[in-house]
């Protein structure tokens, strides 16, 4: 199956290991990802200020670029997914905003693009994934979701913003013990890592404490879905190893 793929800026820089693992996992699952032509930064943060069309122009450029080739777009960065989804919703729900964006871009988005998170493609390939795994390690898994894929309600990838289970369901089907902890959707500190490190350290400390309490004596690894969460959890604690979910899957397939 062939899909247009939007990597976004982070997966081409600090999150390159995420991008690489996505492409390698896709290849072994016979999923063809064609990178979107002439893609732009999505602007990374969605704002609800609908009177400021410039704040969704990056996302809308990508969706208009998509419609020239397809009606579906796959992405994996949590921020990109969140921004693309919310920008498109605002565009179609607010006629004045739509008119202002159309006037600036001199082109309109004719119909909604189906925005797909790469994780959704994996959910359809569980049996194949199971057959490809060469080696399962003995670690239990703590699946950390963060903020951007669980909010806002109604359009988020993971509809339960308190106790989502889709990552856990996937990896339990692959034979792993799951650590179900309370802070799986608590913010990691996000972009405060650039301005208020102590605040981020406090956020990460609370997440890790929640995992510790749930894990007990189990050896545990953390799986993430977001480059910024990955960065903060890797840099502000040293108790647990942290992996992108695709990076972890790739290690299982390779037998590392």
From TrEMBL:
Gene3D superfamilies given in the database record: 1.20.1050.140
InterPro entries, per the entry: Cys_rich_dom (IPR004017), HdrB/HdrD_reductase (IPR051278)
Ranges where the Cysteine-rich domain occurs: 3-84, 142-233
Any one GO MF annotation of this record: oxidoreductase activity
Pfam families cross-referenced by the UniProt entry: CCG
UniProt keyword annotations, A-Z: Oxidoreductase
Keyword Oxidoreductase attributed: yes
PANTHER family on file: COB--COM HETERODISULFIDE REDUCTASE SUBUNIT B 1 (PTHR42947)
Protein name, per record: Cysteine-rich domain-containing protein
Organism: candidate division WOR-3 bacterium
């Amino acid at each position: 199956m062939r899909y247009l793929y939007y990597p976004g800026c982070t997966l081409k820089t600090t999150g390159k290991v995420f991008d690489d693992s996505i492409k390698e996992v896709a290849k072994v699952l016979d999923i063809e990802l064609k990178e979107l032509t002439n893609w732009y930064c999505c602007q990374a943060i969605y704002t609800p200020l609908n009177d400021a069309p410039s704040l969704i122009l990056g996302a809308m450029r990508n969706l208009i670029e998509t419609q020239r080739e397809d009606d579906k777009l796959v992405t994996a960065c949590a921020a990109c997914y969140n921004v693309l989804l919310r920008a498109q919703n605002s565009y179609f729900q607010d006629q004045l905003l739509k008119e202002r964006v159309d006037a600036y871009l001199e082109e309109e988005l004719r119909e909604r693009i189906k925005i797909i998170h790469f994780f959704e493609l994996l959910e359809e390939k569980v049996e194949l994934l199971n057959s490809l795994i060469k080696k399962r390690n003995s670690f239990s898994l703590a699946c950390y979701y963060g903020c951007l894929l669980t909010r806002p309600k109604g359009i988020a990838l993971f509809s339960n913003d308190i106790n989502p289970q889709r990552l856990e369901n996937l990896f339990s089907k692959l034979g792993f013990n799951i650590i179900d902890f309370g802070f799986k959707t608590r913010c990691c500190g996000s972009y405060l890592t650039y301005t208020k490190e102590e605040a981020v350290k406090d956020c990460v400390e609370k997440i890790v404490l929640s995992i510790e309490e749930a894990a007990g004596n189990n050896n545990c690894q953390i799986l993430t879905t977001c480059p910024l969460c990955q960065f903060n959890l890797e840099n502000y604690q040293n108790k647990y190893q942290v992996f992108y979910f695709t990076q972890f899957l790739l290690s299982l397939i390779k037998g590392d």
